[in-house]
Amino acid sequence: MIREISAKTIQEAVTELCIKANLFLPQDLEKRIETCSKCEKSPVGKNVFDDILNNIKVAKQESLPICQDTGMAVVFVELGQDVHIIDGDFEQAINDGVADGYINGKLRCSIVGDPLERVNTKNNTPAVIHLKIVAGDKIKIMVAPKGFGSENMSALKMMTPSVTQEEIVDFVVDTISRAGSNPCPPIVIGVGIGGDFEKCAYLAKKALCRSVEIRNPKPLYAQLEQKMLDKINKLGIGPQGFGGTQTCLAVNIEQAPTHIAGLPVSVNVGCHVTRHASKII
Fold first, then answer.
1. Is residue 171 part of a domain?
2. What is the pLDDT of residues 104-145, one digit of tens each?
3. Per-residue b/e over 225-257, b at no fewer than 16 CB within 10 Å?
């Protein structure tokens, strides 16, 4: 049976999620930051962690953004195939929701309409929309605002099947080494392995939205996640680049089938404010 959902309902959900994601850090990530703060060996690093945790607390209490860079709105949608959207256009509803969330939520608008002309759109649209058609009559929407201090440190490499697992680990670790303090560590790392050029990048971005408490279900990739995490933390970059033992909070890997001649690997860097909020309609 077809279920009708109004475009207005979608718009309202996106508005709510834009504001929520910018004000409240996911509980699993906040908990991980608290845990890592206790593990930090550097006195300066511990002080930075105290500031980060206090910032998270104040953002909640005062209804203020956790970070002044309220990001580019990345929206992941799982659309049930038994849903019929009425009263408007689906994509327009999402962008209207982003505009409402950023303007009425008093969030910084950071999007320019053309990459070279650089004119601000003044409502943080258009959003980056990833749509997946799934079974059922519901819509799951996840809004993941992405700041660009961390996004700019991301990388993708078209490797070949001859590379070793160690070379893949080294590519990820080298990417973070070169990033240094720029992505506002402690960071979360999303790694995509497989697919093609654009699928690989999508996997890395989606990986950032996975709970830091959940490891990849395949032992091979779970082991790689741990190996990358350990090596990154041995770089000594530390919280906000002041040195320390806790540079990275988690490494999440997502993988996909790929071509026999390829092995693309991408790294999407998330700062300690790796935000996302979701809702099911």
1. yes
2. 999 999 999 999 999 999 999 999 999 999 999 999 999 999
3. bebbbebbbebebbbbbebbbbbbbbbbbbbee
13: its two tokens: 């959900």
3-state helix/strand/coil string of the chain: CCEEEEHHHHHHHHHHHHHHHHHCCCHHHHHHHHHHHHHCCCHHHHHHHHHHHHHHHHHHHHCCCCCCCCCEEEEEEEEECCEEEECCCHHHHHHHHHHHHHHHCCCCCCCECCCCCCCECCCCCCCEEEEEEECCCCEEEEEEEECHHHHCCCEEEEECCCCCHHHHHHHHHHHHHHHCCCCCCCEEEEEEEEECHHHHHHHHHHHCCCCCCCCCCCHHHHHHHHHHHHHHHCCCCCHHHCCCCCCEEEEEEEEEEECCCCEEEEEEEECCCCCCEEEEC
- Domain shared by 180 and 131, yes or no: no
* Domain count for the chain: 2
- The Cα–Cα gap between 99 and 15 comes to 8
Claim to verify: residue 262 and residue 191 sit in the same structural domain: yes
Does some domain include residue 257? yes
* Residue 95 near residue 127 (C-beta atoms within 8 A): yes
Compute the residue count for the chain: 281
**pTM of the entire predicted model:** 0.96
